[in-house]
Amino acid sequence: MKILILSRNSTLYSTQSLYNAAVKRGHEVQICDHLLCNIIIEKNKAELYLGLDKMENIDAVIPRIGASATEYGAAVIRQIEAMGVFTTVRSEALLKARNKLHCMQFLSSKGFDVPKTGLCGGDLYAGMMYEQVSKDKAVVKLLASTQGLGVILTQSKNQGVSVIEGFHRVGHDVMIQEFISDAKGSDIRAFVVDGEIVGAMLRQALPGEFRSNIHRGASSSIVKLTKQEKDIAIKASKLLGLSIAGVDLLRSSRGPLILEVNASPGLEGIEGTTKIDIAGKIIQFIERKLDKQKQLK
Fold this sequence. Notes:
Layout: E1 2-6, H1 13-24, E2 28-32, E3 37-42, E4 45-50, E5 53-54, E6 60-63, H2 70-82, E7 86-87, H3 91-98, H4 100-109, E8 117-118, H5 126-133, E9 138-146, E10 149-154, H6 157-169, E11 174-178, E12 186-193, E13 196-204, E14 219-222, H7 227-240, E15 244-252, E16 255-262, H8 268-274, H9 278-296
Parallel strand pairs: 1-2, 1-6, 6-7
Antiparallel strand pairs: 3-4, 4-5, 8-11, 9-10, 9-11, 12-13, 12-15, 13-14, 15-16
Helix pairs in contact: 1-9, 2-3, 5-6
């Protein structure tokens, strides 16, 4: 089987882990930066060039699309879908999960509990919207924040409004989100592959820090999920159309809350913490899907 990994950087841990897992199982693997891919659109004909070379004889694609290249990455995936090539991430699922507000709107409409969240139409309404969410502390975050960047804990309405106005001045919309003090600076990452939890870890923020991202220096440990937490992670991934997902949960007094769902979750933290070959699970998932497609032909 010939597998294409779309990644901006071939030396990244996740890219290398997937590459090594595929090679170990006897597959041929190519890595290409999706921003160097070129799209040709014609009637009843879809073509994709990997740099100067036409993409041919690829059996499956693993997109590793970062937040900075979401739109173009989704366009490349859409072209791959039009070519009839299996991809582990669908373009519409990527777009739905990547926009945090869109994701929260969708999941809450399906009955999932999430931190109370607000979005204001301009500076004039910032104070009113902040009060709708919180009387003191709240989290202000960019709609496409990643690795804890663009996420700020505000201590009061006045401070929150100032932060919101600052983001608005540079052309960014932000969400105002309920601060879940019950979580005590921790969250849970549940890693889902093909409708199954294949690994889970608890991430604990540094003292004085509320962001529990590994990139912000948080520690991690293996955690046992409750049945409710497992069901929430699996169902949310399925409803978003994600075969591979990192579902972030907060433990609160009113039960598990979905913080976000990552369509391109990193492997370094989860593999390092759990010692589980997550990349190998992803390659096995691809093998199952392609075997099933062959049987149906």
